[in-house]
Structure formats: structure tokens, C-alpha cells
């Protein structure tokens, strides 16, 4: 079982290349096969069947070098239609292989297959892949490791070894059933029963102590941890007892090294972290717990793994716990970490922040309610819970938007996603129920090729203020700044970092606050934009950005692949 890395072809030079041997620096095509299938797993003293790739949880690791291409053939032997998304891979001109269900493709039906062409460009570090259909990503996800090209190196001393660490959430029940129930009546979905670290809940969760994930380390050596938050609904703090962390990359883009005792990571984000085993030989807990600051229900448990020094020594009976791990509601711990992110911005890893703006958007990010005509209604006062961007709660179409756009099909989506909410209001004030009920629709924003785009995301206090980790497909972008309260067009831009803002694909809009991003619309295609809290995405906190073709074929969407899944 496992991933079959079948062939490694040197596309241009036509001679044989052995993986890992530094023969030359041309980009390489890798082949993987993903078999989607139900697999039995036992956690928290109970067994369930769940959808996996190749029977693995977390799923297989895709390993590439900067600039490579990966061909992944996905065979669906499961019970329902699924798609796979390559989170953070820009896929230049190739939205066909991006994956979000009914946005760029229809699902791969049971018994069918689809071949994705995953095109890497300048990403380097850690990304991940995940299912992008309903909540199937809870069990269908894995790491993408992008190493420097042969002949180039990390912008930090080469680590002794590296390890992927995937944070996720474990639901005892069937994830598809629980989200189908929640969306049918607009209720808060059931919370998870545990968090997992590399597939294991770990101490102190039921029946988890002996199966806790262990990371062996040699004293004195430095390790590169590739941390991925594949969880569904909560941001998380992460720390290792008695050990310092140095964060060197976020979302496959290098940072000025940040020395810290803990990190905060949102669903969707990835982080490359150096840790040196410089303590006395023993065993130490690696731990993660949620950051949560809202009235919504959430899983408040802790997951652990063990950093285990190799060698002969007598450890204390139980490992020490990271006392520096912040408490669940510690907002200042979040801000103290996230405001330290700066792009590395070196000669080898330059950045180019657009200095001007051609297209300006201001998008309110809200949790709302919708009228409910069911016998059981999940929201307050006989409503259904909903969510919106600029007061529009997104409806997923039946035919994918990419196909509708490419083939000029009408009645699939509208091209009028607005540049601002219907009218200004006190976004973060006390009573904003004027926009409690959003409109609904499938509206996309059309942007001309090459425009410099700036988007201010404004959190609101409607229904329930929360943090929102927003994600845009097809791009990475500069996070210029964040702040609390209502965005002020005069004073807020003065706080922007235009020198070395981090280049990311997922960023937190602070509760009752704002965040600003900037990028050049140089990737033609249909790109999903959504909150990476699955609860909010299911309620409609989504939209689509369509970047039009440029004037040449090199700046236009590629032709569609032959084997696209059919809709219906
Ligand atoms: Cu992690 Cu729409 O993606
Ligand atoms: Cu959200």
C-alpha cells in the first residue's frame, strides 16, 4: 500500500533521473496514485469506517522540489463524489486541477477517476492537499513537502532531519452524516471528539496514551518540523515542553526567523519550524490546544505527542507538559505571535509588494441567520445559521463555475459580486442586526488580468463575532496589516507593512477587526475564496474571483484536460 512514485522523467533533457541524486536542476514530473476508499480506524476506544487516501490517516506525503509538476491519478473507490485540492499551490493558468467541488470541477464519482496535474512554481517549504467536498477533508488530507531545487539550499543551516506534523480533528461519528444533518436545518455542526497530532489524539484522551505519536530526536541536533493545520473549525496553539521554536516559513514562503516558545496556526496554514534538541535526554510533550474566543460551540480538548530523546537514560514517569502553551481564550498570545511575521525578503528570496492599487475591495465577513421553513430550525428564533461575504451568502452551483465561465454557460453564476457591502454600518458595533439576514446567490468577482488588487476584510459583530482564517486559491498574497475595530481609510493604511509583509495563502481576520491583503491578478482562472473554518464555509462564507485572460496564450487559461468529471 502507500504512494507509488512510479516514474521520474526529466521532461526536457530526456535522460534518466534518480530521485534525490543531484544530477541537474531541471524540473521533474512525479506520478502518484491516490485510491480513495473507506478504511477502518480505531481512536478514543471506538472504531469507524472513514474515507481515506490509500488507507492512510493522515494521507500520503507528496514530495517535490521547487518548480516540479506532479501528476496525481485519483481513483474513487468510496461511496460518494469527492474532489482533491492542492492548498497553496498556485497552479499557474491551470484552474482545471485546483479541485474545489462545483467551483472548478464536478466531483469524481464512485468508481471513476480523474488525473490532476499539480503545477508548482515559486512555492518552497510546506503546503498540503485535502478533499474539497463537504467535510470530507476531515479524513482526506496530507502534506506537500517542497524542497529547494538541486544546487540551492535552505536560507538557514541545513537541519539534521525533518518531520511532518499534521494537526487534525477526530469525530467519532461519520463526518458526512454530521454535516448533512447540520446543513439541513442550519444548526451548529457537532464538535469534534478530539484533536489529533499525526493521526493520534495522544494523552490525556481516552484510550490514546499508548498510541501517542513519538518523534525520536538525537541530542544536539536540529530538526525541521513541517506543521500543518488540517483541522476543521478551531485555530490552535502549539508548543513543545522546554524547547524553543524558530519559525522560518509560513505557507511555503520564507520568513525572517521568529524565536518563540509557542505558535498560533489557523486551519489551512502551514509553518516550517526549527527545533534543536538541546535539553537533557528525556521525553517531553508536544501539545496543541485550540484558541477560541466566541460563543459558538467548540472542542476544548488538548492533543499531545512526545519528543523522545534517543539513548540510555531514566526518564521521569511522565513527560513534562509545555507550560508556555497559551490558554484557550488568550487573544494577546495570538497577537503577540501573528504580528511578528515578516517576509525573509532576501536577495535569493525577494518579494515585490505592489506599490499601487487598481482594484480595491472591501469585504465584510459575517455570521448571519436565514429564514427557516423547516420543522426543526438550528438557529435562534426559528432561523437557520448562515454566513456571508459582503452580505451575500454563497450558494454552491450544480455545474462548476470554471466550466460555465470557459464555455459561456448562463444561469450558473452571476458576475456581480460587489466591491463593498450594501451600505456602510458600524461593523463592529453592538447592534448590527440590520444585516442579520443576508441575501443569497452565486456571485463572482471578475478582475482584469494584471490588475493590482487590494482587499480589506472587515469582521463584523452580526450574530456572533469570531476570527476568520480567510483563504484564496490560485495565489499567495502579501498580508499588509491587521487591526481591531472598524477599518479607517485614513489611519489604518498608515500601519501597513509595505517593506517585508509575509506572503501567505491563509490569514486570520481578527474578531471584530480587519485585515488587508494585496496581490497582482496574474493568474487567469476561477479561484475560490472562503473562510477555512468549515463551519462557516458550509454556511456560505465564500465567493469566487475570476481573473480574465491576458492578451497572449502564455497569459491565458490552459485548455481543459480530457478526462474532466461530468456534472449531474
Ligand atoms: Cu484548503 Cu479552499 O481550501
Ligand atoms: Cu469564518
Summarize the structure.
It contains four helices and 33 strands.
Structure, described:
There is one protein chain. This protein has 568 residues and is mainly β. The protein has three domains: 140 residues, Cupredoxins -  blue copper proteins (Immunoglobulin-like, Sandwich), CATH 2.60.40; 178 residues, Cupredoxins -  blue copper proteins (Immunoglobulin-like, Sandwich), CATH 2.60.40.420; 197 residues, Cupredoxins -  blue copper proteins (Immunoglobulin-like). The chain has four helices and 33 strands. The strands form seven sheets. Strands 11-10-13-18-15-16 form a six-stranded mixed β-sheet, with no helix packed on it. A six-stranded mixed β-sheet has the order 22-21-26-31-28-29. The protein is globular. The N terminus is likely disordered. The site of CU-O-CU linkage has 11 residues, from strand 6 and strand 32. Keywords: Apoplast, Copper, Glycoprotein, Lignin degradation, Metal-binding, Oxidoreductase, Repeat, Secreted, Signal. One of its GO terms (molecular function) is copper ion binding.
SSE order and pairing:
Elements: E1 8-10, E2 28-43, E3 46-53, E4 62-65, E5 69-76, E6 84-87, E7 113-119, E8 125-131, E9 141-147, E10 161-170, H1 175-185, E11 194-197, E12 214-217, E13 222-229, E14 235-240, E15 245-250, E16 253-260, E17 263-265, E18 270-276, E19 283-291, E20 303-309, H2 331-338, E21 359-371, E22 383-389, E23 392-394, H3 401-406, E24 439-441, E25 444-447, E26 452-459, E27 468-472, E28 477-484, E29 503-504, E30 506-509, E31 513-520, E32 525-531, H4 534-539, E33 542-547
Parallel strand pairs: 2-5, 4-9, 10-13, 12-20, 21-26, 23-24, 25-33
Antiparallel strand pairs: 1-2, 2-3, 5-7, 6-8, 8-9, 10-11, 13-18, 14-17, 14-19, 15-16, 15-18, 19-20, 21-22, 26-31, 27-30, 27-32, 28-29, 28-31, 32-33
Bound molecules: CU-O-CU linkage and copper (II) ion.
Residues 468, 531, 533, 536, 541 line the site of copper (II) ion.
Amino acid at each position: 500500500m502507500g504512494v507509488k512514485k512510479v516514474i521520474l522523467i526529466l521532461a526536457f533533457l530526456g535522460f534518466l533521473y534518480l530521485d534525490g541524486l543531484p544530477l541537474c536542476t531541471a524540473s521533474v514530473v512525479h506520478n502518484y496514485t491516490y485510491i480513495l476508499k473507506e478504511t477502518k480506524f480505531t481512536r478514543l476506544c471506538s472504531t469507524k469506517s472513514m474515507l481515506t487516501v490509500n488507507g492512510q490517516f493522515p494521507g500520503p506525503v507528496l514530495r517535490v522540489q521547487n518548480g516540479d509538476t506532479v501528476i496525481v491519478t485519483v481513483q474513487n473507490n468510496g461511496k460518494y463524489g469527492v474532489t482533491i485540492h492542492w492548498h497553496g499551490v498556485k497552479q499557474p493558468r491551470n484552474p482545471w486541477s485546483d479541485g474545489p467541488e462545483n467551483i472548478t470541477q464536478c466531483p469524481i464519482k464512485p468508481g471513476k477517476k480523474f488525473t490532476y496535474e499539480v503545477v508548482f512554481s515559486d512555492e518552497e517549504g510546506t503546503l498540503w492537499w485535502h478533499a474539497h467536498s463537504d467535510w470530507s477533508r476531515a479524513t482526506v488530507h496530507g502534506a506537500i513537502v517542497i524542497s529547494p531545487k538541486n544546487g540551492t539550499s535552505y536560507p538557514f543551516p541545513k537541519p539534521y532531519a525533518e518531520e511532518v506534523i499534521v494537526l487534525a480533528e477526530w469525530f467519532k461519528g461519520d463526518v458526512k452524516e454530521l454535516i448533512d444533518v447540520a446543513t439541513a436545518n442550519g444548526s451548529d455542526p457537532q464538535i469534534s471528539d478530539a484533536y489529533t497530532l499525526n493521526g493520534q489524539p495522544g494523552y490525556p484522551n481516552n484510550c490514546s496514551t499508548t498510541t501517542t505519536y513519538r518523534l525520536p530526536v538525537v541530542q544536539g541536533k536540529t530538526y525541521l518540523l513541517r506543521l500543518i493545520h488540517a483541522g476543521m473549525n478551531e485555530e490552535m496553539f502549539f508548543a513543545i515542553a522546554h524547547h524553543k521554536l524558530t519559525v522560518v516559513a509560513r505557507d511555503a514562503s520564507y520568513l525572517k526567523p521568529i524565536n518563540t516558545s509557542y505558535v498560533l496556526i489557523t486551519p489551512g496554514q502551514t509553518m516550517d519550524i526549527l527545533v534543536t534538541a538541546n535539553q537533557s535526554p528525556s521525553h517531553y510533550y508536544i501539545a496543541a490546544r485550540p484558541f477560541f474566543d466566541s460563543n459558538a460551540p467548540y472542542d476544548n480538548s488538548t492533543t499531545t505527542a512526545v519528543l523522545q530523546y534517543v539513548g540510555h537514560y531514566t526518564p521521569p514517569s511522565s513527560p513534562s507538559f509545555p507550560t508556555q502553551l497559551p490558554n484557550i481564550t488568550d487573544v494577546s498570545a495570538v497577537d503577540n505571535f501573528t504580528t511578528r511575521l515578516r517576509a525573509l525578503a532576501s536577495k535569493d528570496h525577494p518579494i515585490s509588494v505592489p506599490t499601487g492599487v487598481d482594484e480595491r475591495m472591501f469585504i465584510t465577513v459575517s455570521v448571519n441567520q436565514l429564514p427557516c421553513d423547516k420543522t426543526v430550525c438550528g438557529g435562534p428564533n426559528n432561523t437557520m445559521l448562515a454566513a456571508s461575504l459582503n452580505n451575500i451568502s454563497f450558494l454552491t452551483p450544480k455545474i462548476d463555475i470554471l466550466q460555465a465561465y470557459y464555455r459561456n454557460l448562463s444561469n450558473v453564476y452571476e458576475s456581480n459580486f460587489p466591491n463593498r457591502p450594501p451600505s456602510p454600518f458600524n461593523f463592529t458595533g453592538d447592534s448590527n442586526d440590520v444585516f442579520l439576514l443576508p441575501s443569497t446567490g452565486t456571485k463572482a468577482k471578475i478582475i482584469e488580468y494584471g490588475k493590482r488588487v487590494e482587499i480589506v476584510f472587515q469582521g463584523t459583530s452580526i450574530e456572533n463575532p469570531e476570527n476568520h482564517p480567510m483563504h484564496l486559491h490560485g495565489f499567495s498574497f502579501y498580508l499588509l496589516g491587521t487591526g481591531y475595530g472598524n477599518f479607517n481609510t485614513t489611519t489604518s493604511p498608515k500601519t501597513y507593512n509595505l517593506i517585508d509583509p509575509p506572503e501567505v495563502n491563509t490569514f486570520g481576520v481578527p474578531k471584530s477587526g480587519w485585515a488587508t491583503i494585496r496581490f497582482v491578478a496574474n493568474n487567469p482562472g476561477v479561484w475560490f475564496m472562503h473562510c477555512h473554518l468549515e463551519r462557516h464555509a458550509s454556511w456560505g462564507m465564500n465567493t469566487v474571483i475570476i481573473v480574465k485572460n491576458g492578451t497572449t496564450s502564455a497569459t491565458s487559461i490552459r485548455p481543459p484536460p480530457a478526462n474532466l468529471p461530468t456534472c449531474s
